[in-house]
Design goal:
By secondary structure, this protein is of the alpha/beta class. 50% of the residues lie in helices and 14% in strands. It has helices at 4-11, 16-25, 40-48, 51-57, 66-76, 84-87, 119-131, 134-140, 144-156, 160-163, 166-182, 194-201, 238-255, 273-282, 289-293, 296-302, and strands spanning 94-100, 106-111, 186-190, 216-220, 223-231, 259-265, 285-287. It is elongated. The two termini are 17 Å apart. The model has no long low-confidence stretch (mean pLDDT 92).
Length: 304
């Protein structure tokens, strides 16, 4: 349950509704730092991994007989085959395709990860590349390497979700580093399992959590705190699931005398007031970036 005495003492908030309003009124507007949009280091590294194969594909530009020329290219340079999936924005080297629906469902499996191919396999790869439309595009594009860069940028947008909480985690890490520098008895651990903490620091953890990972664990004079961090810019069903899992985690940790802190932020909570309120009501400590900056995390950790 919410530690109302703590909120009353440090924020002069006496009820769950007051806490929810204080948190909701100070949610940050966006998590989009400059680094949020594209991880250019990863994107260019992924592109450059195929620079030789892409250079060979340049020979397909304006060819008069694409199927024949592509077949000859693959026979002479079979290593080109491994780049085909990624040019279609697929990282899996083994693709299964629905080949026919007219006489029952028929599938074909294409393996683009082999080192060598026989004549039939090369013919199948040519057929795949033609039927997906990629072969025609290879004959038209000026630069396959620039095209792949665009593909990688597109694929990298899927990782934005993983980057969404990074700036919050950075804030927490900096706070904990500064706090541990002032408190010699305090240590903090990032992205480990509870079992790791139990084994290394001799801190009891309930068996059901031993194999679970955490964002942060802080050990201060024998007192342990788990901190979980996330950001929600939009709505969805997952936040409700997260709230439920965190309530359960908080209860389990409390039975072992751990404190549990949920640091969350984002405008999405303004449209998900019900699960947010449930979390605030049933988790001991819920804070956002604003309260982190005001020193609330430090007060929770040092609380005996």
């Amino acid at each position: 349950m919410a530690n109302l005495d703590f909120y009353k003492k440090h924020l002069n908030l006496s009820t769950v509704d007051e806490i929810c309003k204080a948190l909701s009124d100070t949610l940050i507007e966006t998590n989009c730092t400059y680094e949020f949009f594209v991880n250019w280091t990863k994107v260019t590294k992924n592109r450059d991994a195929f620079k030789y194969e892409l250079a060979l594909l340049k020979s397909m530009k304006n060819c008069s007989d694409p199927i024949s020329d592509f077949r000859d290219l693959l026979k002479k340079y079979p290593e080109v085959i491994k780049v085909i999936p990624i040019l279609l924005a697929c990282r899996d080297g083994l693709l299964k395709v629905l080949n026919s629906i007219e006489t029952g469902l028929q599938y074909m499996t294409f393996d683009f990860s082999k080192n060598s191919y026989d004549t039939k396999e090369i013919e199948n790869v040519v057929k795949f590349t033609k039927n997906t439309g990629l072969l025609d595009m290879l004959c038209q594009m000026d630069s396959a390497i620039d095209y792949l860069l665009g593909v990688e940028v597109g694929l990298d947008t899927n990782a934005r979700k993983n980057r969404s909480g990074l700036f919050l985690e950075k804030m927490v890490t900096e706070t904990l580093k500064e706090l541990s520098a002032r408190n010699s008895d305090m240590v903090f651990i990032e992205q480990k399992s509870f079992g790791y903490v139990e084994d290394k620091y001799d801190v009891h953890i309930p068996p059901t959590l031993r194999d679970r990972k955490f964002d942060y664990a802080v050990i201060n004079k024998g007192n342990a705190t788990n901190i979980e961090v996330n950001f929600y810019g939009g709505t969805g069903s997952k936040p409700s699931e997260i709230v439920s899992s965190y309530i359960n985690r908080g209860e389990v940790l409390s039975s072992a005398s751990w404190k549990f802190v949920w640091l969350t932020d984002g405008q999405g909570w303004k449209k998900m007031q019900r699960p947010f309120r449930i979390g605030v009501e049933n988790i001991n400590y819920v804070i956002n970036a604003n309260l982190l900056r005001k020193g609330l995390l430090e007060k929770i950790i040092l609380l005996s």
